[in-house]
Write a structure and sequence with these properties.
The complex is a heterotrimer of chains A (313), B (303) and C (545). With 313 residues, chain A is mainly α. Chain A has 15 helices and no strands. The longest helix of chain A has 36 residues. The chains are: A mainly alpha (313), B mainly alpha (303), C alpha+beta (545).
C-alpha cells in the first residue's frame, strides 16, 4: 500500500510539473501584459520601463526557473493587474466563493439526481422514468449562461424572491447553483439509475426482501445507500465541471470566485495569477482523484501490486 | 484515471419488464425507436444544414436596418420574417438555418479530430501497456486537470477567436475521454482468445489493433460521439458568451443567443429561438445517444 | 469484483467524506450575513469594473469609478461647465511665460480622512513621486514625469520642467492622472496601509473593499462645507449587461451605467437617465496601418485605404444618422466633423462642421464614382477591408456598430470581412506597427488638442491610430514647441483642416455619458463628463426624498 501511495504521489508531482510548463508557455503565448495593463497611448519607452519592473525582459528559461524556485517556496509571484496582491493570495481570496457555490451546486444536483435516478430504476420504463429523464436531460440541453439570465429575470426581477447577483447569504446561492448544477443532473442521474438497477439485483437486497424488510426501506435505505456512492466516485470529474462552469456562471451572477478571476487575469495577461489559478485547479483536481484512487486501492488489493494490471478483470 | 472500467455486466441484469400495460406498450414502442429525436434532428439540424442555401428566405449576414427587432409572426410580426429579426434586421429563421450548418460542422470536425486522437492513443495505451500506457495516461491526466475553458480563453487571447481555435478546444476536451474509455476496453479485449490466436498466427501489432480490436470498440466510439455532439453545441454557446465563439457575422446558434441575451425582455425572440434550437437539438441528441447506448453498449458509463 | 461492489464497499469510508463535504459547504455559507441594505441612507451604484480593484491609483488604469469618490486631484472641475476652478485642493495656480514652471497655491485647513492630519505641499510631492514611479501605468505619465517638484512652503508647491507643459492642468484634473494621498499615512504604515484603508480628502471616505464591491461613507465636515445626501455609497462591479439591468429593476442598485441599447428597457420600467453636461467620449474608426512617414518601411502602399479616394468612399458609404438611432436609442450622441476636434479646444474650426455633410455625408452614388476612379476592387492586391471587433470599455456598442459598418460596406460594393480580436491583441499589433485593419477608436474623455494629436497622429503615439505622414509629423512638432496661444491655435487649426481633407479616419460620434437612475431613490446627479469613467462628482447624487 505504501509503495502504491508513493508511486501515485510521484506521478501526480510529475503531472503538476508538466502542467506548470504548459501554463507557463501558454500564458506567454497569449500576449504581453503591457498591452492590457498600460493606457492606450503608452509609449514604447513606458512599456519597456514597466516590463523591466515586472521582470519580463529576462530570457524565458530564466523566468521559468525563477518561477519554479519561488513556487517551491509557496510563492507564485505578485499579481501584475492587482498591485499589492500576491497571485496566490488572489486565488485564496476567491477560492472559498467558488468552492461554496460549486459545493452547493453539487448538493443541489445530487438531491435532484439521486431520487430521480432511483425512482427511474425502480420504475424502469414507466412514465416516471421518462419524466425524470426529461428533467435531467433538459438541464444538459440549455446553455447555462442563458439559463442563468432567464432565472435572474424570472425569480429576481419578475417575482423578486431571490437576489440577482453577488455573493452574500444563502439566498444569493440558489439561482447560480441551479444554473450550474442542473447541467450535471443528467450525468448523475444516469449513474444512479444504472447503479441502483444493479444493486437491486444483488443478493443482499433479495435477502432483505425475503426477510420482510418493507419495500420502501429496501429501496431508500439499502439500495440508495449503495447507489449514492456513484457521484462520489466521479468526484474528480465533477470538480472539473465545477471549475469550467464557474467561468460562465460567475460572470452572469457577478460571483467573485476563481472563474471570474481567471477570465480577468487572462484578459490582462496577468501571468502570475493565470498560473496560480490553473495550478490551484490542477492541485485540487489531482488531490481529488488521488483520494478516489487510494480509496479504490484500499478496497481492491490487486491495484496495489501492479498499477498497470489494475483494470484487467 | 485509474478507475477500473466496468466489467462485463450481462444486459439482462437491467431488469426483466413485467407484462406491458397498453399505455406503456405504446410508450415502449416509441422508446424502442427514438423517432421523435431523429425527426427533430432532421428538421432542425441536418436538413437546414444541407439546404440552407436554397431554403433560407433571407441572407443570413445582410439585414435591413429599417426592419430591425421585428417580432415573430403571431406576436405582431409578419410572415416576411416568421421568427422575427435581430438587432440588425437580419431574419432569425435564416440565421438559424445557416447556424445549423455551423453547429454541425463544429461538432463533426471537433469530434472527428478529438476522437481520432483519443482513439489512437487509447488503442496504443491499452494494447502495448507498459511505459507507453503510463505516458499516455499521464497525458490524459494533464489534459483533464487543465480547464478547457481557460485554454480557450488563452488561445483566443493569442490569436483571436476563430473556427480553428474552437476545433482545438473541442478536440482538447474530447480526446482524453475517448482515450480513457477506449484504453479500458482494449485492456480486456486484448486478453481474448481471438486476439491471442491472431498473435500466434503472426499478425502484426498494427493489424491486430485495426482488424481485431478496433471493431470491438466501435460501438463505444459511436455512442460516445453521439452523446458528445450535444455537449459540443453547448460548449460553443458558452464560448460565444465569453466572446470566444465563431467570429461575426457568421450565424452560429451560440453567438445568436449570446448576442440577444441582454434583450431578453424587450426583444426576447432574438435569443429565444436560437436557444430553443440548441435545447431541442441537444435534447434529441442525448435521447438518441441514450438509446444507442442501450442498444449497442449498455455497460458504457459516461458522465 | 464489479464496480458496484467496489462502490458499496467504498460507501463506508466515503460517507464520512460526504458528510464532511456537506457540513463544510454549509458551514462556509455566511448565514444571515445579508441584512440586505434596504436602508434609505445607502445608495448603490452598479458599474463596469475598473481596470483593477485596487487602492493604488497609479498602478492601474481606469480607476475613476472606484477611487474618485474619496481621492481628489489638485484641481476641481465645475460640475456644469467642466472648467477647472479653485474649489478643490489648489485654490489658484500660475505658470511662467514658456510654460515650464507651474506654481500651485494650496487650500489651508484641509483634513485627510481618519485623522491623518492637514493636507500640505509635502503630500503633493509624495503623491507626485508615487505617480511617476517605475510601476506607474497612469495615462499620460510620460507628460507628468520629468518635473522637479518642490514644496516652497506648507501651502505652495512648484513643478519645474525642462520643456513646456502647456497642458499640465489636464494632468491634475478629472482624468485622474495624479491623485493626492497622505504622506503621513505612508510614513506610518507604508503601501500596505493604503491597501487596508487609504485616507483621501474627498466627500466620501473609504470603508471596505471586497471582490466586486467597495463601500464608502460620507464625511460630515468636508472643507467644501457640502454634505452629500446619502450617508453610504456602495459601488458594485458587474460585467454582464443583463445582470446590471436586472439589479436596477429589482431594486438592488439605484444607479447603473447601462449600455445604451438597454436604456429603453430601463426607461420603460420607470427608470430615468441622467447625462453628463459635456461630451465625455469621441469615437471614430481608424484607417490603421498608414505608417507613412517617408523614412518608414512599415508603410504599405498596397492597402486599399492608402488611396484617399477609397478613404472618402468608405466614409461616404456609412449612414451615420441611421447608426445614431440604432446604437443610441436614448439619445445623447451627436455627429462630429473631426475626431480630436472639440469645441472650445485649440484648433476648433466651425467651418469643418459646415463642410462635413457635403464632404463626408452618406452618398452611394458618389461612392460608386470614387470606387470607379480608384479602380476598386481590380486595382488592389487585396481589396478586402478588414474590420476589427474588439471589446472596449466605455464602448459596449462596438460589436453592433462594426457589424453595421460591415453591412454598409458590403451594400456599397466593398469587399469586407470582420476580424474579432482581443483588445490587448489589437494593441499588441499596434505596438508592433502591423495593425493593417480598420479598428474602432476612442478619445475619452476628449483630450486637449495637443495631447490628442500626440497620442493619435505621431510615431510612436499609442499604436491604435495609424495615420502618420511627413506633413503631419512636422506640424505637430511645431505645435508642441510653440507656446504663443494664437500661433498654437492657428497651427492646430491648420492640422485639423489637413486631416479633414485627407480623410485620415472615419469620424463617428461625440457622446455624453448616460447612467440610469431609480427615481424613487435618486432624483438627480450633475457631472460634467470629464473623467475617464465619464461620471464623477459622486457627492452630488441627490436623494429623492
Amino acid at each position: 500500500m505504501q509503495r502504491y501511495l508513493v508511486y501515485r504521489v510521484v506521478q501526480s508531482l510529475v503531472t503538476l510539473l508538466a502542467i506548470s510548463v504548459i501554463i507557463f508557455g501558454l500564458s506567454r503565448l497569449s500576449g504581453n501584459p503591457v498591452d492590457a495593463l498600460l493606457p492606450d497611448n503608452a509609449t514604447p519607452q513606458e512599456a519597456a520601463v514597466v516590463m523591466h519592473e515586472w521582470g519580463l525582459d529576462r530570457p524565458l528559461h530564466v523566468q521559468y526557473l525563477a518561477f519554479i524556485r519561488n513556487a517551491l517556496r509557496g510563492n507564485l509571484g505578485d499579481s501584475l493587474k492587482w498591485p499589492g496582491e500576491t497571485a496566490l493570495g488572489m486565488v485564496w481570496q476567491r477560492l472559498p466563493a467558488t468552492l461554496q457555490l460549486g459545493g452547493f451546486a453539487i448538493i443541489i444536483s445530487t438531491l435532484i439526481a439521486i431520487p430521480i435516478g432511483v425512482l427511474a430504476a425502480v420504475n424502469k420504463g414507466r412514465l416516471f422514468d421518462s419524466f425524470g429523464k426529461m428533467v435531467a436531460l433538459l438541464g444538459q440541453a440549455v446553455p447555462p449562461f442563458w439559463l442563468g439570465i432567464v432565472l435572474i429575470w424570472t425569480f429576481s426581477v419578475h417575482w423578486n424572491v431571490f437576489p440577482t447577483s453577488g455573493r452574500g447569504g444563502f439566498e444569493h446561492m440558489v439561482l447560480p447553483a441551479i444554473a450550474m448544477g442542473w447541467y450535471q443532473v443528467a450525468a448523475l442521474m444516469r449513474l444512479t439509475r444504472s447503479s441502483t438497477l444493479e444493486v437491486l439485483d444483488n443478493e443482499y437486497i433479495k435477502l432483505a426482501r425475503l426477510k420482510g424488510v418493507p419495500e420502501w426501506r429496501v429501496i431508500w435505505v439499502h439500495a440508495l445507500r449503495n447507489a449514492a456512492i456513484a457521484p462520489l466516485t466521479y468526484f474528480g470529474v465533477i470538480i472539473g465541471y465545477i471549475f469550467t462552469g464557474s467561468v460562465v456562471i460567475e460572470t452572469v451572477f457577478a460571483w467573485p470566485g476563481t472563474g471570474l478571476l481567471a477570465i480577468e487575469a487572462i484578459r490582462a495577461r496577468d501571468y502570475p495569477v493565470v498560473q496560480a489559478v490553473v495550478l490551484t485547479f490542477a492541485v485540487v483536481f489531482i488531490i481529488a482523484n488521488l483520494i478516489v484512487d487510494i480509496l479504490y486501492a484500499f478496497v481492491d488489493p490487486r491495484i496495489r501490486y501492479n498499477d498497470n494490471e489494475q483494470s484487467t478483470p | 484515471m485509474n478507475n477500473p472500467p466496468p466489467e462485463d455486466t450481462p444486459a439482462e441484469s437491467l431488469g426483466v419488464p413485467a407484462p406491458p400495460h397498453l399505455l406503456r406498450r405504446i410508450w415502449l414502442n416509441l422508446r424502442s425507436y427514438p423517432l421523435l429525436s431523429v425527426f427533430v434532428l432532421l428538421v432542425l439540424l441536418v436538413i437546414p444544414a444541407l439546404t440552407a442555401d436554397w431554403l433560407a428566405p433571407h441572407d443570413p449576414t445582410q439585414g435591413v436596418i429599417m426592419d430591425r427587432r421585428l417580432p415573430p409572426v403571431f406576436f405582431g410580426g409578419t410572415w416576411e420574417y416568421p421568427l422575427g429579426t435581430d438587432r440588425l434586421g437580419r431574419d432569425i429563421l435564416s440565421r438559424i438555418m445557416y447556424g445549423a450548418r455551423v453547429s454541425l460542422s463544429i461538432s463533426l470536425v471537433g469530434i472527428f479530430v478529438g476522437g481520432l486522437l483519443g482513439v489512437t492513443l487509447g488503442l496504443l495505451a491499452g494494447y502495448f501497456r507498459g511505459w507507453i500506457d503510463t505516458i499516455i495516461m499521464r497525458l490524459v491526466e494533464i489534459s483533464l486537470a487543465l480547464p478547457a475553458i481557460l485554454l480557450a480563453l488563452v488561445l483566443a487571447a493569442a490569436s483571436g477567436p476563430s473556427f480553428q481555435t474552437i476545433i482545438i478546444v473541442v478536440a482538447f476536451v474530447l480526446w482524453a475521454l475517448y482515450a480513457r474509455q477506449v484504453r479500458g476496453e482494449v485492456l480486456s479485449i486484448r486478453e481474448r482468445d481471438y486476439v491471442a490466436r491472431a498473435r500466434v498466427a503472426g499478425a502484426s501489432h498494427f493489424r491486430i489493433m485495426v482488424r481485431h480490436i478496433l471493431p470491438n470498440v466501435a460501438n463505444t466510439i459511436i455512442v460516445l460521439a453521439t452523446l458528445q455532439v450535444g455537449s459540443v453545441i453547448i460548449l460553443e454557446a458558452a464560448l460565444s458568451f465569453l466572446g470566444l465563439g465563431i467570429p461575426r457575422p457568421t450565424p452560429a446558434w451560440g453567438m445568436m443567443v449570446a448576442d440577444g441575451r441582454q434583450l431578453i425582455v424587450s426583444a426576447w425572440w432574438i435569443s429565444f429561438f436560437p436557444g430553443l434550437a440548441i435545447t431541442l437539438t441537444v435534447f434529441s441528441l442525448n435521447l438518441l445517444g441514450d438509446w444507442l447506448r442501450d442498444r449497442l453498449d449498455p455497460k458504457l458509463e459516461i458522465v | 469484483m464489479t464496480m458496484k461492489n467496489i462502490s458499496s464497499r467504498l460507501w463506508r469510508p466515503c460517507r464520512y467524506v460526504a458528510f464532511a463535504a456537506i457540513a463544510l459547504t454549509l458551514a462556509i455559507i455566511p448565514w444571515g450575513a445579508t441584512a440586505l441594505a434596504q436602508n434609505n441612507d445607502r445608495v448603490v451604484a452598479v458599474v463596469t469594473p475598473p481596470g483593477a480593484e485596487t487602492n493604488r491609483s497609479w498602478a492601474a488604469t481606469s480607476l475613476w469609478q472606484s477611487l474618485g469618490q474619496s481621492l481628489e486631484g489638485l484641481l476641481e472641475h465645475d460640475p456644469i461647465t467642466g472648467e477647472y476652478n479653485g474649489d478643490g485642493l489648489a485654490t489658484s495656480w500660475e505658470h511662467n511665460d514658456d510654460f515650464t514652471v507651474w506654481t500651485f497655491h494650496l487650500r489651508k485647513g484641509v483634513q485627510f480622512h481618519f485623522g491623518y492630519g492637514e493636507f500640505t505641499a509635502d503630500d503633493v510631492v509624495h503623491s507626485y513621486n508615487l505617480s511617476v514611479s517605475d510601476a506607474s501605468v497612469i495615462p499620460g505619465v510620460d507628460q507628468l514625469r520629468g518635473a522637479e517638484v518642490e514644496a516652497l512652503d506648507t501651502y505652495t508647491v512648484r513643478f519645474s520642467y525642462a520643456k513646456p507643459r502647456t497642458n499640465l492642468l489636464y494632468l491634475h484634473g478629472g482624468h485622474s492622472i495624479m491623485l493626492i494621498y497622505s504622506k503621513k499615512q505612508f510614513d506610518e504604515e507604508g503601501l500596505e496601509g493604503y491597501d487596508r484603508r487609504f485616507a483621501g480628502t474627498g466627500h466620501y471616505q473609504f470603508v471596505s473593499r471586497e471582490p466586486g464591491r467597495v463601500l464608502y461613507e460620507r464625511v460630515d465636515d468636508h472643507y467644501s462645507g457640502m454634505v452629500p445626501d446619502f450617508k453610504e455609497l456602495e459601488v458594485r462591479f458587474v460585467t454582464e449587461p443583463a445582470t446590471k439591468l436586472a439589479m436596477l429593476l429589482a431594486g438592488e442598485a439605484h444607479i447603473a451605467d447601462l449600455s445604451r441599447e438597454l436604456m429603453p428597457d430601463a426607461l420603460s420600467a420607470g427608470m430615468k437617465t441622467v447625462q453628463s453636461t459635456l461630451p465625455s467620449i469621441q469615437t471614430d474608426l481608424v484607417f490603421n496601418g498608414l505608417y507613412c512617414e517617408s523614412h518608414d518601411d512599415r508603410c504599405r502602399k498596397d492597402l486599399p485605404w492608402y488611396d484617399v479616394r477609397i478613404r472618402e468612399a468608405i466614409n461616404r458609404a456609412i449612414n451615420r444618422e441611421e447608426m445614431l438611432t440604432v446604437l443610441f436609442p436614448s439619445g445623447g450622441y451627436d455627429l462630429h466633423a473631426r475626431y480630436t476636434m472639440v469645441k472650445g479646444n485649440e484648433g476648433y474650426d466651425p467651418t469643418l462642421e459646415a463642410r462635413f455633410p457635403a464632404e463626408y455625408g452618406y452618398d452611394l452614388e458618389k461612392v460608386k464614382q470614387l470606387l470607379q476612379d480608384a479602380n476598386y476592387p481590380d486595382g488592389f492586391k487585396d481589396p478586402t477591408i478588414p474590420i476589427i471587433i474588439t471589446p472596449m470599455s466605455a464602448m459596449p456598442e462596438v460589436p453592433l456598430q462594426q457589424e453595421m459598418v460591415y453591412q454598409y460596406l458590403i451594400q456599397a460594393g466593398f469587399k469586407a470581412k470582420i476580424v474579432e480580436l482581443d483588445y490587448a491583441r489589437v494593441r499588441a499589433m499596434g505596438r508592433e506597427r502591423e495593425l493593417y485593419m480598420i479598428n474602432p477608436g476612442r478619445n475619452s474623455p476628449p483630450r486637449p488638442t495637443e495631447v490628442a494629436f500626440r497620442a493619435f497622429y505621431t510615431n510612436p503615439g499609442g499604436g491604435l491610430q495609424g495615420w502618420e505622414d511627413d506633413w503631419t509629423a512636422s506640424h505637430i512638432e511645431t505645435l508642441i514647441s510653440t507656446v504663443d496661444p494664437v500661433l498654437r491655435d492657428q497651427q492646430a487649426r491648420e492640422l485639423q483642416n489637413y486631416l479633414f481633407e485627407q480623410y485620415v479616419d472615419i469620424p463617428l460620434f461625440d457622446g455624453y455619458t448616460q447612467v440610469a437612475i431609480n427615481p424613487k431613490v435618486v432624483s438627480g446627479w450633475a457631472f460634467p463628463g470629464v473623467t475617464s469613467a465619464g461620471y464623477g462628482h459622486w457627492h452630488l447624487i441627490q436623494a429623492a426624498n
